[in-house]
Design brief:
Largest sheet: 8 strands, mixed
Structural class: alpha/beta
Number of strands: 20
Oligomer: single chain
Helix content: 25-40%
Strand content: 25-35%
Radius of gyration: 24 Å
Strand order of the largest sheet: 5-9-8-10-11-20-19-18
Shape: globular
């Protein structure tokens, strides 16, 4: 009897394990954008939903809901031709539209089992939204623009590399056809824009031409309610463009809070009084004179490091958030990527902006212009997460571009 009981239990556990394992292997994706068909080691694969990849085989069932036989997709070759080709990134130039080779975006529903597409149904074909990527102060296509452009293409959009904007007339000429907008990161803004005198840790690597460009573009985009994302320097430009100011050097600012007693010495770590590499002093090994007290707090490093937006016990994404909270899906996130030494000044927030996220040391991590349909600025670099090895971070990075894409499509139906 005891042996029979053990046998029955083993069979039950085996069935539970097998069924749960089998169900975990089959994944269903609804209405996701298809990016490209590639060949990996002689096997065809498809990239979809921004970052996911799966193999296509002769057994993959490919079909299209369209009743137009001239658009019908029924095999891998037809699917690859319908999607189009990815850009030749080496030939991309400012002023061009990136993604024309891809043609219309295909939205599809997929069943994937053990990294193989079992069934793919093209639900609809859509004209790719034209999303402007702001000029970054360089004559050539920059690395930051490429990361953003590829993210846009992966999530169903085209990227228009906006030329330098010098006037309102330029805005009307180059921005009028945009359905969306992204401002990538970059170097420091001139403190004179917000009525401050530059000091050593906050004054170098200034580009007045880009400052003028960013202020003009931001104000035009907001005034015309174009859905947009502002990243790192972008969120700083968003704040300054609406009359706000910046913390010129985060470590110096945090140190003043320590001296004032707002942050305990026990929670602070003094750091060398040197410039921020690549952002301030040309020689970051030379101490500043006169010397400053600079510090980190609560273990947060904002220079080329990851940190949290709070925790489940101390959430730091506001419940008042209109854009960020729906993207993240909860009031905290365990790991965002930072590369900055300036930030929005909490005592001088631009008109109409709402602070919706902080890092554990109190630095502002996100601003929203909630008057508009979609206007979100983040201090952290979500765009680089799309190329991270961690699947959750890839999903996190893509979710911002998906939110922009969905907002654009929703506005088309109004």
């Amino acid at each position: 009897m005891k042996r029979l009981w053990f046998l029955t239990l083993n069979i039950f556990l085996s069935e539970v394990f097998f069924s749960s394992e089998a169900s975990a292997q089959v994944e269903r994706y609804e209405h996701v954008a298809l990016y490209c068909v590639n060949e990996v080691d002689g096997r065809a694969s498809i990239t979809f939903d921004g970052f996911r990849k799966a193999f296509l085989t002769e057994d993959t069932v490919i079909s299209e809901l369209s009743s137009d036989s001239s658009l019908r997709v029924s095999n891998i070759s037809e699917l690859a031709e319908a999607i189009g080709k990815i850009p030749d990134w080496e030939s991309v130039k400012i002023g061009e539209v990136v993604g024309k080779e891809l043609g219309d975006v295909l939205e599809a529903s997929l069943s994937v089992e053990n990294d193989v597409v079992k069934e793919l149904v093209v639900d609809k074909r859509l004209k790719r939204p034209l999303v402007g990527v702001s000029w970054t102060g360089e004559n050539n296509f920059s690395g930051g623009q490429r990361v953003v452009s590829e993210a846009l293409l992966r999530n169903g959009m085209q990227a228009y590399l906006i030329p330098q904007i010098r006037s309102e007339a330029d805005c009307d000429q180059f921005l009028s056809n945009l359905e969306g907008f992204v401002m990538p990161g970059g170097t420091n803004m001139n403190p004179q824009l917000y009525g401050e005198v530059p000091y050593p840790h906050g004054s170098a690597k200034i580009d007045d031409a880009r400052d003028a460009n960013d202020v003009l573009v931001t104000r035009w985009i907001l005034r015309h309610n174009v859905p947009g994302l502002w990243i790192c320097r972008g969120v700083q430009a968003l704040n300054v463009s609406l009359g706000g100011a910046l913390i010129q050097d985060v470590p110096t600012y945090l140190a003043t809070l320590v001296l004032r007693g707002d942050i305990s010495y026990l929670e602070a770590e003094p750091i060398p009084d040197k410039g921020a590499p690549g952002l301030t002093s040309a020689d970051s090994d030379v101490p500043c004179m006169p010397r400053h007290f600079r510090a980190r707090a609560y273990g947060v490093n904002h220079m080329s490091a990851r940190h949290s937006l709070g925790s489940s016990e101390q959430p730091q994404i506001s419940s008042d958030s209109k854009f960020l909270l729906p993207i993240v899906g909860q009031n905290y996130y365990p790991s965002v990527l930072s590369w900055h030494h300036q930030a929005a000044d909490p005592d001088r927030i631009g008109e109409g902006l709402t602070v919706v996220a902080h890092s554990p040391d109190g630095i502002i991590e996100a601003l929203e212009y909630q008057i508009n349909d979609f206007a979100l600025g983040t201090q952290f670099h979500f765009e680089y997460d799309i190329n991270n090895e961690d699947k959750e971070l890839q999903r996190f990075g893509c979710s911002f571009f998906k939110a922009l894409y969905r907002c654009v499509l929703d506005r088309r139906t109004r």
